[in-house]
Amino acid sequence: MCSTSWTRDGSEDIELEEIGDGNINDVFRVTSVKERSQSLVVKHGPAYIKCLGPEFPLSIVRLKVEYNALAAFQRICPGYSPCPYYFDVETNAVLMEDLRDHSIMRKELISGNINMETVKKIAYFLACVHRDTHVSKLSEAEFEKLQQDFQNEDMVSLTRQYIFTRPFDKTDPTNRCSEAVQKKLHLIYEDPGLLDSVWKMRNLFLEKKECLVHGDLHTGSVLVSNNSAKVFDNEFAYVGPAAFDLGLLIANYIFSYYRHMSTQENHDTHRKFSQKLIEACYLTVNTYLSVMTCTVGQRHEYLNNLLTETAGFAGCEIIRRIIGTAHVEDLEGIPYAEEDALEAGVRLLLGHDRIHTIDRLMVIALMLT
Ligand code: ADP
Ligand code: MG
């Protein structure tokens, strides 16, 4: 299925290029000098957060989890993620297919490019992974094994802190936001109802064991080219709620929506593009449900919960990307985009209990009439 014709005797002349952004791991492209079309990607994880240094330890288990998840993805939905070639225990490195002809989806969205076929593929991929690892589909022993293979405590703890805890603690020194957003912070810190909702979503994230989830599915975790979509960077994979992946993905389409709605020059072109992002949200949920609902029983209750939880997680992701430490390029520096998106996140969190359909989610997030 996944193979490479590389020799492993060390005699190959190779060229090494660092391609990672250097935050958590080392990511290199290795190219054969003799046969330049031959290349692979090596992802290596130090035992600490690379950009912060050794005083911030982080379990190296994450790279084994990344490899396990790539292998599971390839088995369940071949061709929708990079092929895993090898996991080297000694150096704690994953070797995988080099998708050098692809580009990061977030960058494409920022440039105003979207291909609905890739949007559909991401949702299809996600649904297949969730369906085939769903608690209702596996035996008890199989589900137990899945949880063991994807025990990823340190990464789950990072998400807990950076999505659900730190951004909602106004004294946390890692938070940052623009001056315009500062004027809106009372919407977060002075609303006990909102903080209760965040706490509820945090507990759901930690406690609901539903299926294998990617765990960090934003538009920077997808490589695209023409009709091809490849989901990668799955070191946060764990067994958790399906809606966590869906919520993050929808939130990231919403970021792009607000970017293009707020861009002043070539106003009409950007407006038109933002309408495509609404379409992308519908297509995502509808494609996802067309795969999932064939499998999961209690259709009505299942649907009700899925969209409620998706809205809640989307709300947390939107807010933390504007007032927490990790911001998104889609919104930064675009006047009004951050404030408008922040308010969308607040509406989703406060209203998530009453959201049971994608229609309702979009109406509340984007104030559509
Ligand atoms: P990290 O988790 O440390 O951020 P990523 O897995 O996100 O590392 O990889 C960092 C960057 O390296 C990506 O944004 C992408 O540009 C590039 N990259 C990673 N994996 C591949 C791949 N399989 N093919 C091509 N480029 C890749
Ligand atoms: Mg990563």
From TrEMBL:
Gene3D superfamilies: 3.90.1200.10, Phosphorylase Kinase, domain 1 (3.30.200.20). GO terms for molecular function: ATP binding; S-methyl-5-thioribose kinase activity. InterPro entries: Aminoglycoside_PTrfase (IPR002575), Kinase-like_dom_sf (IPR011009), Methylthioribose_kinase (IPR009212). It is an enzyme of class 2 (transferase). Residues 16-252 form the Aminoglycoside phosphotransferase domain. It holds the Pfam family APH. Homodimer. This is S-methyl-5-thioribose kinase.
